[in-house]
Amino acid sequence: MTEADDRARTNLEAQGRMGEIVASGDYDRLTEVLADGLVDHDPAPDQSAGPRGIGEFWTTFKEAFPDVALEPVQVVASEDYVTAILDVSGTHRGEFLGHEATGRTFTVRGIQVGKFEGGRMTDRWGATDTLGILQQLGLA
Fold first, then answer.
1. Less Cβ crowding at N or C end of the chain, within 10 Å?
2. CA angle (25, 26, 27) in 5-degree steps
């Protein structure tokens, strides 16, 4: 196994831990896998910088969709990056983008690309089909 393979495995493990942390709701632990200076190139509106902003996003999203689930479709790791294609699903139980709960469910595709150094994400790019969520909830 090469050094590049070892780094790819470390990055993949960090991505997996991030998924576990998000699922648990223990967002203070995000600093275990997100670098202090993390740059989120695709933040949500009004999202704070760094790991704190990622935690804020997930807090708000899980208030709207308490049963949110992220199902990996494909995950690819290299010595510097992890790309995760995910199915995202949930039930609308709280306010989302100014809309009261509808009780409806959604399933959409999302993608996240993370750049890693030393097993911690330093940069994040991502997109989720927000229009698809709104359409499935009957809001668009």
1. N
2. 95
Place of tokens 């995202």: 88
What is the pLDDT, as a whole number, of residue 109? Answer: 98
Residue 1: band (very low, low, confident or very high) from pLDDT cuts 50, 70, 90? confident
Domains of the chain in sequence order? 3-136 (3.10.450.50)
Q: Which two tokens stand for residue 137?
A: 């909830």
- pTM of the full predicted structure? 0.91
Q: What is the mean pLDDT of the chain?
A: 96
Q: Give 69-74's long-range contacts (Cβ < 8 A, gap of 24+).
A: 70/19, 70/22, 70/23, 70/110, 72/19, 73/109
